[in-house]
Amino acid sequence: MVASVPPPAAGPLPYHLLCLLRDRGATSRAELAGQLGDPRARVLGEIDALIAAGLVREAGPAASRGGRRSTLVELSPDLRFAAVDLGASSIDVEITDGRLEPVAGYSEPAEIRSGPKAVLQRLGEILAKLKADGAYQRLQAIGIGVPGPVSYRDGVPVSPPIMPGWDRYPVRDVLAREHACPVVVDNDVNIMAIGERHGGVAHSVDNLLFLKLGTGIGCGIYLGGEVYRGTDGCAGDIGHIQLDGHGQVCACGNVGCLEAVFSGAALTRDALAAARAGTSPALAERLAAGSPVSAQDVADGAAEGDATCVRLIRDGGHQVGTVLAGLVSFINPSMIVVGGGLAGLGHVLLAEIRSVVYRRSLPLATGNLPIVMSELGPRAGVVGAAVLASDLAYGRQER
Fold first, then answer.
1. CA torsion through residues 6, 12, 14, 19, sign
2. pLDDT for 399
3. End-to-end CA distance of the chain
4. pLDDT greater than 80 at residue 62
5. Are 170 and 185 in contact (CB under 8 A)?
6. 3-state SS, residue 298
7. Please, what sign has the CA dihedral across residues 226, 106, 142, 85?
């Protein structure tokens, strides 16, 4: 995994020590003291305390630089985190070590609408199976993302439009009790943004927008190197920005939201209409064969030159670009990363989004603005969840 940037100087020293070892691997005591900028005696004392606590161990002598060789220290190889990405129709789980390298993983289809008890019970069964297979003996922490607004402070989803039965369900407390470890809960787009910044194309970018296009649409926001969640945790919920006051009814109850105009469900709806109307030979053929029409069929049809499929993707990209253009002029990010299931629509989608953003945003804000696809792809969520879990276990204090 790509190493992260050095931690900021402010904050508890043990947390920053552990993060340096997480992101850089085995490091000498001398280098740690130099990088952290704290008094050498204090840093060495904290390292000894972490060794005594079983979080860190000695890893042999450092390379010689002509004098007495310093001793390397590294994270304990026994540290384990569970990283969970709950999607609208899937569960993705990874067990990682202290450096966030994957030890084991598992994915399966799931229906978030079946409710929290059923989904979390299944998650418990998956974790039990991974434990039985030797992936871990105990977990230091769990990080989990869910596809809806989350009160980050309370660890609960709040009025999530596509998650019936989850409103105010104590996800954090239930998982912490069942697995005897601390738990952090965030929405899925935030964990994807965290993952992409930690180990993807946005590595170390301090001002970032991560656009998730899938069953729902959201935007993870990094400002000044920190995730911006807003006062109540719902910042970035751009899927419910209205584009058409007389448009389709959205899952949130309003009309004409971006998510109602272009999302996984909206694209499937429009593709099915095109198949039934016969305006798309590729989609009509799929429907005639008795197969359900999906967003992937639209992508395949566009790749084959089907004009209606290309139009559906371009229309969606135009709507997304319109919303992003406003955000770019307002926030002035240094990068936009596009991820989620609909990122598989490929270059046609990305080209349309770029075209609209570059045309409609302020020139000063777009002169050096890359708009790129996610490098981590479907792993962005679990990578971000692992980062959050390790931050929690290592003692991060939210500001």
1. negative
2. 44
3. 27
4. no
5. no
6. helix
7. positive
DSSP string, 189-243: HHHHHHHHHHHSTTTT-SSEEEEEESSSEEEEEEETTEE---SSS-TT-GGGSBS
Q: 85 with 214: CB under 8 angstroms?
A: no
Nearest to 156 by CA among 187, 178, 179: 187
Q: What is the Cα–Cα distance from 308 to 174, expressed in whole angstroms?
A: 47
Q: Could you tell me which of 394, 349, 388 has the C-alpha nearest to residue 152?
A: 388
Q: Which amino acid is at 253?
A: G
Residue 10 has what pLDDT?
42
Q: What is the pLDDT of residues 240-284, one digit of tens each?
A: 999 999 889 998 889 999 999 999 999 999 999 999 999 999 999
Q: Which CATH number fits domain 201-374: 3.30.930.10, 3.30.1330.40, 3.30.420.40, 3.40.50.720?
A: 3.30.420.40
Quick check: 56 and 73 in contact, CB under 8 A? Answer: yes
Q: Where are the domains of the chain?
A: 13-75, 81-195+379-394, 201-374
Cα–chain-centroid distance for residue 82?
14
- Of the candidates 181, 177, 207, 214, which has an alpha carbon nearest to the alpha carbon of residue 193? 207
Residue 225 — pLDDT band, cuts 50, 70, 90?
A: very high
pTM of this prediction exceeds 0.85: yes
The pairing of beta strand 226-227 with beta strand 217-223: antiparallel
CA distance 171 to 104: 23
Q: Give 176's Cβ-side CA count (13 Å radius).
A: 14
Q: How confident is the model at residue 218 (pLDDT cuts 50, 70, 90)?
A: very high
- Cβ atoms of residues 3 and 23 within 8 Å: yes
Q: Could you tell me which residues are beta bridge partners of residue 81?
A: 96, 141
The tokens describing 336, both together, are 């936009």
Cα 87 from Cα 144, distance rounded (Å): 11
Per CATH, 81-195+379-394 and 201-374 having the same topology is answered: yes
Q: Which CATH class is domain 81-195+379-394?
A: alpha beta
Rounded-to-integer distance, Cα 90 and Cα 111, Å: 7
Which CATH number is 13-75 given? Answer: 1.10.10.10
Q: Are the C-beta atoms of 88 and 162 separated by less than 8 Å?
A: yes
